[in-house]
Write a structure and sequence with these properties.
Helix content: 40-55%
Number of domains: 2
Distance between the termini: 32 Å
Largest sheet: 6 strands, mixed
Number of helices: 9
Strand order of the largest sheet: 2-1-6-5-4-3
Structural class: alpha+beta
Radius of gyration: 19 Å
Number of strands: 6
Strand content: 5-15%
Length: about 260
């Protein structure tokens, strides 16, 4: 699996391609090729209906049920504890989406990706990706769609404020992701299908880069905070930037499609 492809969540990859398909710019074959290729070739992907988990479907057949869903009814949801906007109050879709951290709403259908990593007795390792398909209730909270320009500005402001706060805490010496994220921005910019303009592509790449750089920073501890109070202060400084990244990713995925 391509490391850079693995850093882009499956739902974040899928939503722009589904929207381009339903807007008439690409075929369903193109969608499946994009989602199973681009570094994810060789990963077994299938769709499983939560109402009939014993009958897995191919990705092609599983996505074909969305053939009548308008492009603007396809939305990305990126929930985190404390921010579950776009999710029903309860139900299997909500449970799965919270566990995954990403999901797709397509009309009355919800799709949630779940990675599974396997190791054989001989030590061979491989991964599978299950897309759980759920029926959504009639009444759903809206998914906020923020214009690309507004999201880009908010991301820049959040980055400046985060840097200021971390500098004050003397924990700003994070490397922005280092070698693990090298080239991610260029790679991510190329992942959107035909129909998305350059502003959406740049925002998509930039927000994904910053989002994953934040994840690396959290994992590495940023080499700064040592006390519980300092760790809490660092976490609070990062939280608004993480929220701005999620908003920007959604804005890029939901951007207007044209040819």
């Amino acid at each position: 699996m391509n490391d850079k492809a693995a850093l882009i969540g499956p739902a974040v990859r899928l939503v722009p391609w589904l929207r381009a398909w339903r807007a008439g710019g690409v075929s369903l074959d193109d969608v499946v090729t994009a989602i199973t290729g681009g570094g994810l070739s060789g990963v077994d992907q299938h769709v499983v209906d939560t109402a009939a988990p014993e009958v897995p479907q191919s990705l092609m057949n599983g996505l074909a049920v969305l053939s009548a869903v308008p492009a603007d009814d396809i939305r990305l949801v990126l929930p985190v504890p404390g921010d579950v906007r776009g999710l029903p109050r309860a139900g299997r879709f909500t449970e799965l989406a919270l566990a995954s951290g990403e999901a797709v709403r397509a009309g009355r259908v919800g799709l949630v990706p779940q990675w599974r990593h396997h190791t054989s007795g001989s030590g061979d390792s491989w991964s599978t990706l299950t897309w759980w398909r759920c029926e959504l209730p009639d009444e759903l909270p809206p998914v906020e769609v923020v214009p690309v320009g507004e999201a880009d500005l908010a991301l820049s402001e959040a980055l400046r404020e985060c840097t200021r706060r971390l500098t004050a805490l003397d924990v700003a010496a994070w490397n922005g992701g280092g070698g693990e994220l090298a080239g991610l921005r260029d790679f991510a910019e190329r992942q959107l299908p035909t129909g998305f303009d350059s502003r959406a592509r740049l925002l998509y790449a930039r927000s994904l880069f910053l989002d994953h750089a934040l994840e690396v920073a959290r994992r590495d501890g940023m080499g700064g905070a040592v006390t519980a109070a300092e760790a809490q202060a660092r976490s609070e400084a990062l939280r608004p930037l993480a929220a701005a990244c999620r908003q920007a990713i959604g804005a890029a995925c939901h951007a207007r499609i044209g040819w």
